[in-house]
Design goal:
Layout (H helix, E strand, L loop, with lengths): L1 H15 L2 H14 L4 H16 L11
Amino acid sequence: MKAAMKMFRSLSVFLSTSADARREARQANYLSQATDLHDLEFRIRQLDRQQARPAASWMSLQG
């Protein structure tokens, strides 16, 4: 019963959160795992390159 409630709560949070907010949260988590300034700058450049790269139209559906 508790597992079902936890899953329902997780699903409701997922559905109420926008794709942009989920993407930003993933990026913030990724950046927070940097071990030093050099690693942080590398990760920032990597995210910038990913955003600059045009994606196929079907990929824009991913959150």
